Structure formats: structure tokens, C-alpha cells
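Per reviewer request, we include the raw input and output of the structure prediction for the construct analysed in the revised manuscript.
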Amino acid sequence: MTPPPRNPYLTVDVIVEIEGGIVLIERASPPLGWALPGGFVDYGEEPADAARREVREETGLDVELTDLLGAYGAPDRDPRQHNVSIVYVGRAHGAPVGGDDAARAGVFAPDAPPSLCFDHARVLADYRWLRATGERPPPPPGIVADVLRAAARDALEAAILRRPPRVATSEHAPWAVRPAATFVTLRTPDGELRGCIGEMTARSGLAASVRDNAVAAATRDPRFPPVEPQELRALSVAISVLTPTRRVASPEAVEVGRHGVLVTRAGHRGVFLPEVATDHGWDRETYLAMVCRKAGLPPDAWRDPATELAVFETVKISPG
């Protein structure tokens, strides 16, 4: 007798964007830990309706679905059984409160979540890529990160050790040659800044931008002397891929932990990456005051309607 066919179960997960970050829930049943809000699609239910229902049940929030990130179906993504998840992106307002299968809910920066259940770390990496580039994710983020880290390291060694660059074939992949704006940050072993250079608008492909800015951070940051060969091995290299900037109508639109800020006025210009505010523990007003000071403007220049404020987001590739 032929056994009945076994099919995966259909589930939904939602990346809920909210003031200050994204919403995660701490699961009340195994597998325990933090996860995206979500759950099973009921028979006869539209997946989008299931997504809205699960968010409401687990967080108390009404979510407006704004995007479809993708489908995730690796057989081992859920230790209980084979589940295929449709992952949505949405926006909500208010304070999340855990309910139903969620012991509690919280708001976290997308690039600094707690340890996550299932494959939700990969899902969030894909989400950050979507936000940074406006495009669906390329190969698994680990592959992308490894290629870009290797490109930055090779460019640094070629420039500082004065040897020919060794460009990998993976740097010519379609995703790697699409125009992108990046920043590259160098730090010493004790975490001190050693150089940071980037651009706000794309001038070349992603991999080429990383190479150019890695060399610039090591050799042309006016705050520091050029990196010496003996320093090279110990330096950490972090890469930030930027979304296009967009002007905001008021300072209240700037979200600390999510937005980088570009301030412009009368020929003065200053920029901070999103992590600058969180690293220093600044609130919005301090963040805006400090970026104005960096631009050579009075600290309260952000209050003046003549000052242009623009925001952007980043996908941060940490040192490997």
C-alpha cells in the first residue's frame, strides 16, 4: 500500500517595522527564543490575512503589509517539521504587547537582534539587503558578506603592500556589479576608529565601491595618517551598504537606530551612519545636534527650516 504523500506545512512570518526598529516576539512554547511574529495559515485562509491575524494575536498591533520578502522552505528551518514560510514586511504603530504564543514582545534594531529561532537570522539579513538596495536578496547573505569582506581585504593589501590586486570571479556576479553606495570602517584591535570613508550616491558597482572605499579609508581619511603595513593584519573591516537618501519633512521623522542622517545647509554638509547614535547612546536631538556640529553648523541648526535633513538606512557587514 502506497503511503499518503507528505507535504510541508504553510506558515507566515512578518517583519513589522515600527518606531525604533522591528518587532520580535519571545516564544512561549518550544522552540524557545526570539522570533518574528507569525504562525500557521489556516485552511481556507489567505496567507496575507493569516499574517495580519498572527501579528495581531502575538503583538496586539494592526499591521499594514507593504512588501513580500520571499518564501523560505529549507527542510531543517524548523526543528518540529518541514514548514514553508511566506515572509511579509509591514508597518505598525503603537507599543507591542506579547499575547497568544508570545510570552512578550519587544522592539529591536534590525542589525542588532537577539539570538533568533528558526532561520530568522537569514530572513533579517535578506530584509536588510532589500532595504539597502531596493532589490530582492542575491545569494545567501553569508556568501555576499564573504565576497565583500575578501574584496576589501585584498584591496587593502594590494594598496598598502604594493602588490597587484587579486579580483575574485565572484566580484563580477550580477549582484556585485549593480551600482551601490558604501562606507568602509577600519578599527584597531581595541575598537578605536582608524579610518572611515564612503559615498552617499552610487558611483560604481557594489564590489568595486567596497574596494575603493577600503583603500580610501586606509590612505585618505584626513583624520589619520595612512595605515602602515605592520598594522594591516590586526585591523577590523566593517562594510555598510547604503539605501538612497530621502529628504524628510521634519526632524521627528528621524528614527534613532534605523536612520543615518545627512544634513546640508549653505555649502555645509555632515553625515553619520545609523550606528553612530546607538554606539554613543544619543537621543534624536543629540544625534541631530552632533551631525550639525560635524557639518560645521550650530548644534541647533537642525531646527531651522533652511537646513535640509535627509535619511538613509544601511546593511552592515560586520568583520568576519
